[in-house]
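## retry 2 of 3
previous attempt timed out at serialization; input unchanged, resubmitting
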Amino acid sequence: MDNRMSYRRRAAYLPWSHNPLMRRGDRMVAAAVVTSVVVLILAIALSVWAAGATYRSVTDSADAATPISATVLNVSDPDPTAVETSATVSWRDSSGVHTDSMSVPRGTKDGSTTHAWTTPDGTRLQDHPGPAERVLAAIWVGVLAWCVAFALVMSGVTLVRRRVARIHAVLWDREWSHACNTNGWASR
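## retry succeeded, writing output
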């Protein structure tokens, strides 16, 4: 025996049917859900665009960076449990001599050289993302953008559902008060 509802029976419960038992609020909630699905599908495209823009931005800044070889001037006292320690480094480029502080491996000695990255104007970059880091940053931005869109859309649908439920509860109370009234339909 087939227990599934036929299409004809299911169609009576769809929000665009002419079922007189479907309240206007039920249709509003269904419209909000359908709209939210459309918006979330569009949000996928926007998230992919945001991820691509992030990847291009990070790649452009990484491609503009210049590798340098910096001389370690002074290594701070390392923490015995730390993998890296802080050091003052110096490097020379076309705009002059620059000095900055950066992290170096724990065993680094004064006078040794370390590798770093600078911008075209000579400012040292804190971190130079590799290809995997660029992709991960782009994926992170895309997923985060879609999750924010999902949270906003679902919050909107929830607010519509709760508002409609309150209106339905008020109407239900009004109908029961009329039914229980001495002049109501239940007293006939």
